Amino acid sequence: MGDTECWFCGSLEDTLKLMEQTVMVEGKPFYKLGGTLGRYPKFVPEDYVILKLTPRWQNGEWVRWMQEVPPGSTKEVVDAARNFSMLKLGFRGDLKFYPGPEILEVAPLLTAPQKEVAWGQQQSM
């Protein structure tokens, strides 16, 4: 597949929503590096962390890849694909971050009420 992009979410809420639709769905198919089909294994929250990064310098462009849907798809399918696509941002180029990323353990985030989990100030991306 030769991808040269790195993907991010703009908020903790979006990160958790994306995870709920991908890595948290045991057996759901996805394309692995090289274009082969894989399936997500059983989700073990303790095996995951989220890195909170603050961009420092960039040379490139932010992109959004929109999920494709078959022609004639229902409005619900089209809306679900659009909502999924809007959860993530891609970057093509060189991107540096301020040192010392914040490391968030996923397991406690899944047991804490979402309103109490703070992501902090977001940088415009």
Keywords:
3 helices; 28% strand; globular
Describe the protein's architecture and organization:
Helix content is 22%, strand content 28%. The chain has 125 residues and is an alpha+beta fold. The strands form three sheets. A three-stranded antiparallel sheet has the order 1-6-5, with no helix packed on it.
- Proportion of residues in β-strands: 25-35%
What's the SSE pattern? Answer: EHEEEEHEEH
Mean pLDDT: 87
Low-confidence runs: 120-125
* Distance separating the two termini: 25 Å
Class based on secondary structure composition and strand pairing:
alpha+beta
Quick structural summary:
The chain is an alpha+beta fold and 125 residues long.
Helix/strand layout:
Elements: E1 6-8, H1 12-21, E2 29-31, E3 37-39, E4 49-52, E5 55-63, H2 75-85, E6 89-97, E7 102-105, H3 106-111
Antiparallel strand pairs: 1-6, 2-3, 4-7, 5-6
